[in-house]
Amino acid sequence: MKTDTTVATSRSVKLRDVTLRDGLQDEVPIPTEAKLAVFEALVLAGVSDLELTSFTRPDRVPAMADADLLARTVIASGATPLLWGLVLNTRGAERALEAGIRHLQFVVSVSERHNLENTGRTVDGSLQELERIIELATDADALVEVTLATAFGCPFTGPVDPASVLDVAKRSKDMGVDRFTLADTIGTGAPNEVSALVRGLADELHPLELGIHLHDTRGLAMANAIAALEAGSTRVDAAVGGLGGCPFAPGASGNLPLEDLVHALMAMGRPTGIDLRALLEASVLACGSVGRTPNSHVGIAGPRYSGTPFESGRTI
Q1: Among 9, 179, 281, 294, which residue has the least CB neighbours within 10 Å?
Q2: E runs forming strands in the chain
Q3: What are phi and psi for residue 27, nearest 5 degrees?
């Protein structure tokens, strides 16, 4: 299986944009051409790692019905970012690989109830699917990430035991996956909880990369992102304008706004490689495509010290 060789420096932070998948999955479907325009704007801003789409059932997630077309079109254009395709089962992985995607993001919920709602399978059933997906990925020289959804809380059953998160993570690691992401699907995590879980998993999963995916339902996503980075996470997922939410998790609101995260990291002297001014333009475009305005602090107030080199992640 392909090895992920990118390594973050002690100061740099890897960011993955999730606008086109998580950001749009619960919205009214928009034309593929509109998604391509958002993609181009994100790349222009310096985004080099992004979730492109999800290979799920169109009747369940209509906004992702053009997954195969979108993937083939972007890949044919020669675009250079890492392109991730979310899959929940073997058929989804087959579709993604046939479309040219070589970075598969497999999602399993730690919460049994949410996994049933999201995938129609038990956790054990999803892990059986994962075994088959790893076989497919190995044959295709593809990389597989496991995203552990509802790692901090379930919309149906409440708090999630960290021991359960560790159990699913260990079982996945033993199968031979390449990297992991912890997802606060409904935004219930607090910074101390995020720190503790990231530290515990980072030790157990070493040397595999551990990222964090945060929803800002209760306004804690930024604090949780910083806590995760300080505890050993090397990557943070975010969506421009705070777009996003899970169709199968009641109460799940948008993602951590990418422009707010870039702005905060720049203030901390941590390079991201993303041009904030161009990213704000991408945010307006993405949000406008679904009839919204950016729900981000920087999108509303603008960058601090506007007009200085601070605005560009490339020049700070």
Answers
A1: 9
A2: 14-17, 49-54, 82-87, 103-109, 143-149, 153-154, 158-159, 179-184, 209-214, 235-238
A3: -100, 165
Which residue ranges make up each domain of the chain?
A: 14-311
* DSSP characters over 13-30: -EEEE-IIIIITTTSPP-
Catalytic site residue from 83, 146, 243, 246: 246
Tens-digit pLDDT profile for residues 97-114: 999 999 999 999 999 999
Active site residue 154: no
In sequence order, which ranges of 63-187 are alpha helices (DSSP H)? Answer: 67-76, 90-98, 112-119, 123-139, 162-175
State the pTM of this model: 0.91
Place of tokens 């505890």: 231
CATH number of the domain at 14-311, please?
Answer: 3.20.20.70
The total of other beta-carbon atoms located within 10 Å of residue 200's CB is 17
Structure tokens at 246: 């899970």
DSSP state of 256: P
